[in-house]
Specification:
Family: Belongs to the methyltransferase superfamily. LaeA methyltransferase family.
CATH superfamily: Vaccinia Virus protein VP39
InterPro entries: SAM-dependent_MTases_sf
Strand content: 15-25%
Radius of gyration: 20 Å
Helix content: 25-40%
CATH topology: Rossmann fold
Order of helices and strands: EHEEHEHEEEHEEHHEHHE
Number of domains: 1
GO molecular function: methyltransferase activity
Structural class: alpha/beta
Largest sheet: 9 strands, mixed
Length: 343
Amino acid sequence: MCPEETEVGHEVIEPETHDDADSTLSSDMQSSTASLTASIIEYRTIHGRTFHSQRGPGDAEYWAPNDNQHNTSMDIQHHVWTLLLDGELYLAPLPDEAGKVLDIGTGTGIWAIDFADEHPEAVVVGVDLSPTQPEWVPPNCKFEIDDVSLDWTWHSDEFDFVHLRTMFGSFTDWQHIFNEAYRVCKPGGYVEDFEASADLISDDGTVTRENGTALGQWGKLFHEAGWKTGRSMAVFEEDTQVKCMKAAGFVDIVVKDIKCPLGQWPKDPKQKEIGSYDQLAVEEGLEGYVIYMFNNILGWSMDEVQVYLAKAHKNDDEPAKSPIHKRVLEIPGEMAELVMAPG
């Protein structure tokens, strides 16, 4: 097994100097597909926001809403992630003929649709708990409703590329996810996971877990909620993906650690663009992110939730020029080639 190669993006992004007071944030073996019925569209409604149905045999539970407002935030965030990868949808060294591709946790389906457009020769399958994907899609793209916390129903060695993105807080058993990804991936194929840290931090120390600011407390509160649900939000910090990939049998694991600015503070035009879109995505999705986790899991009253949201939105307790960022990990791992030795 090859050791993983780590590419770390710890450079300091230089903030733009300004005097504005603009806000930084304005059966025994249950089968997944076969087990799901029309009850999947019986969404839960929590304080006016809809969340995926829990009427199924698995333990899948996603903490963010599936309504139009949150889906808009997810599509903007997709643009952010793509900008971070210099316009690319993935980093794995795929061949020109991409083959068959599986997108786990496809959400609105935007990554799968973009990949299908970029690779018209490929067959792309997107899977999610919620049927929130569009009806009009490229002919080489389709979507399935599935619970990947159960045993996967796809055949072994079926896919050339398996893609996951921002699934932190989703699973109680990450090893199961990567074991199944290994099983359905063809020898020589790739599995790639893109995960973000829940922590928002700043290079100048003005935003930290310890200083009591709304954004500084963001990660701390999400980690606490993740521990209570048994679905860790700390997969970035705990190196979960690399550990599980190794245990599943993947080789040539590459880790790319990237800073993602939040807000319009960077001086560099590209970083400013990324931060601006990231700010827009967070502002659009902020309420959806916190309602379930803070109210249902941490036991906050809705009044307390609204106070927190007001602080985060107005940014009363952080200076506008704070170089706030989060970190993401892009981890492509190669499926080991299976070679039969002569008997």
